[in-house]
Amino acid sequence: MTKGINYSVKDIGLFDKLEGKVFVGKDLGLTGTEVSVSKLAAGTASPFVHAHKKNEELYLVIGGKGMFYVDGEEFPVQEGSLIRVAPAGERALKAGDKDLYYICIQAEAGSLKQATREDGIMLESKPSWMK
Ligand code: ZN
């Protein structure tokens, strides 16, 4: 874990090193989102269906293939799939015949008041690779 005044870095390891689900928001000091990184071993599934009271979720599949369940519908997902689920969506996942790796970002639905174009600020400082 490395921290500066305006940043924090945590190496959780991926693929061979990752087991189960790791929530990183508290360690990193996130204040507007919760983020988890998960591995579902081949042939296994999330043990329950869940929804949320306020938070929407974005699932980013970063490895493997599997099935996603939302509100009684099932569809295949794979590396590169992005799945947004509204708070009330009843969701679950299942890995295929290979391990399934995904990142889940949750934030309160409707809470984003500005995005990149409105919030980003171009600055003059430069890292060594821009000089
Ligand atoms: Zn959730």
Number of helices: 2
Give the H and E element order. Answer: EEEHEEEEEEEH
Q: Please state roughly what percent of the residues sit in beta strands, choosing from under 5%, 5-15%, 15-25%, 25-35%, 35-45% or over 45%.
A: 35-45%
Q: Walk across the major sheet and give the strand order.
A: 3-4-10-5-8
Regions with pLDDT < 50 over 5+ consecutive residues? Answer: none
Describe it for me?
The relative contact order is 0.21. This protein has helices at 25-28, 116-119, and strands at residues 2-3, 8-9, 21-23, 34-40, 55-63, 65-70, 73-78, 82-85, 91-95, 100-108. The protein is globular. With 131 residues, the protein is mainly beta. A hairpin with a 4-residue loop joins strand 1 and strand 2 (8-9). The mean pLDDT is 94. The two termini are 28 Å apart. The longest helix has 4 residues, at 25-28. The protein has a domain at 25-109: Jelly Rolls (Sandwich). It is built from two helices and ten strands; from the N terminus they run βββαβββββββα. Strands 3-4-10-5-8 form a five-stranded antiparallel β-sheet. A three-stranded antiparallel β-sheet has the order 7-6-9, with no helix packed on it. It binds zinc ion. Residues 50, 52, 57, 106 line the site of zinc ion.
